[in-house]
Amino acid sequence: MPTMYRRTALPLLALLLLLPVLSSAQPAGGGAGSGASSAASAAAPTGSPLAATGATGASAAMPREFRGIRLGMSREEVSSALKSDLLYAYRGEDDVSLLPSPNQSLIETAGLSFVRRAFFQFYEGKLWVMILSLNPDKIDHYSVYTSLTAKYGAPNLLDPRESRWEDAATRVALERPLTLRYMDLETYRKLREGSAAKESVEELERRDFLGGL
Hints:
- This protein is an alpha+beta fold.
- The protein is 40% helix and 25% strand.
- Strands 3, 4, 5, 6, 7, 8, 9, 10 and 11 form a nine-stranded antiparallel sheet that branches.
- The chain is built from seven helices and eleven strands.
- It has a domain at 65-211.
- Strand 4 (96-98) and strand 5 (104-111) form a beta hairpin.
């Protein structure tokens, strides 16, 4: 056998012997990138934080607005928005009250349809808490929970009393039996550090309870 033939035939024979091994090691449905993608998809079921955030890994920002009313608005802006929204039976200044805590006021109004009652609390003239007591005859806890989970992933806190989603700026909580709360966390931290924090939270919860009677 010529020298050149011996040098080429042996590597070729070795390659032919290895082909069945390489073929069986190849993942079904594509190359290594496809296999890694499939594994990542299996590890992130639909509705999980990973599935909701996509490739960047950045979580969806919490909503700071409900039907045109946004945390941080002035009392005048909120009052104007309530007047133009048929979801609320807002009567103007008759629904505004001052809280015993310093620099705080509250708009409390009856709701229509999906909202039974709504509370909008202000600190230093800016809206920092929205509480919506929902109507159980029109909507249920499970529907609200599944809608929030589909948009923002699994809650940061889940216990029998509430489900809570939050980022650095905003907290959204679904409280039992059927109350939705939006909160500006910067203002909350400021109040918590002061002597008025406990009074503020307790007063809000008391009014929320009385509003649901």
